[in-house]
Amino acid sequence: MSTAAAPAGPPLSAAQTRVINAAQTLFARHGVGGTSLQMIADELGVTKAAVYHQYRTKDEIVLAAAETELRRVQVVVEHAEAARSTRQARDRAITGIVDLAVERRHTVGTILGDPIIVGFFADHDLFRDVMLRLRHLLVGEDAGAEGRVRTAMLIAATSGAVTHPFVADLDDDTLRTQLLQLARRFLGLPA
Amino acid sequence: MSTAAAPAGPPLSAAQTRVINAAQTLFARHGVGGTSLQMIADELGVTKAAVYHQYRTKDEIVLAAAETELRRVQVVVEHAEAARSTRQARDRAITGIVDLAVERRHTVGTILGDPIIVGFFADHDLFRDVMLRLRHLLVGEDAGAEGRVRTAMLIAATSGAVTHPFVADLDDDTLRTQLLQLARRFLGLPA
DNA sequence: GTCTATAGACCGATAGAC
DNA sequence: GTCTATCGGTCTATAGAC
Q1: Is the sign of the CA dihedral A48, A50, A52, A58 positive or negative?
Q2: What is the arithmetic mean of pLDDT over B131-160?
Q3: What pLDDT, on the 0 to 100 scale, is given for residue B38?
Q4: Which residues from chain B sit within 8 angstroms of residue A160, using beta carbons?
Q5: Is A65:A43 a contact under the CB 8 Å cutoff?
Q6: Contacts of B181 in chain A (CB under 8 A)
Q7: In chain A, N or C terminus with fewer CB closer than 10 Å?
Q8: Checking phi first, is residue B99 left (phi over 0); if not, alpha (psi -120 to 50) or beta?
Q9: pTM of the model
């Protein structure tokens, strides 16, 4: 359905994956700027030097953590693009991002909203590519300001609502059901 | 229409207001954890000691910055509660938060989403009070999970969408018009 | 209300042994 | 791949002069 973009970087080693997982947890809890390499090392039970063996700078860790999150969205987009009809594609896209937001409700919102990561993504080719493809799936060919605002609202609503205190005591299934239903309605789709 | 809550704290002096304004700008750009007192002092053209003369700790600055933002929402809520009909009240609420989000599109999203500020608000009485009253205005008496998710989505969509790259090149008026229209539709109101 | 100067902890990052 | 030890710099916060 479209030329698949190359992955954002080489696959992560097991040790790198552990570093990124710890970093994402801490980024969500303290923000990117409030998370130190010492905290990441402590979370893993190793020393800072061991972390520096996997990544040469903190910025590399931040970028890898952001791209790991982005790649989850990329997978959803590519699965949707492989659908047989535009109706099914849109359905897969909306279900996929809702699932992702609920599954990662304690991390996704805060990480993607962090100003440092927003800055990293501002000139990030893969980020732009994935977002454009997601928008195409959700609202079709560029519908001007209305389509852009609508997509931005849906993405912000989905990834942001899951961290709101109002929904803190809802279990994952309830949250997912409600999010999906309201997201569909927002796009003017049949429930 | 309801018992007005007391303000979150004493009014700010002119010097304190300058500190908080500088802090909010930097929080939005670098995150709360990534903003130092030195950066705030530099932004104001004074030394750190001068800033410490206004606030005794960095936490006090963070809290005051968060409460300043919260109080803007409180003003919107109280103006809406003073309406003569529930229909007018809901209209004022939705218009007010959209206006607020657009007016402060470069700060509001990142500040209210920052994990450190989310933590401050987790046990914050005024925050809870204002959010509950806002929910009551938007979706009426507690409608269970559906009403909670709906309110969380609308708040996240409004405050989060304004920072999304998709809308970066839209002028304030266009953004406000589209946001308002889509927010109304999301609540099932006539356009 | 602003300054200089400083204390003590922690920051990101590196060197080199095992 | 992990460690100890260390570098220079920045952090929050305070003391005290003007």
Answers
A1: negative
A2: 95
A3: 98
A4: 113, 152-153, 155-157, 159-160
A5: no
A6: 146
A7: C
A8: alpha
A9: 0.95
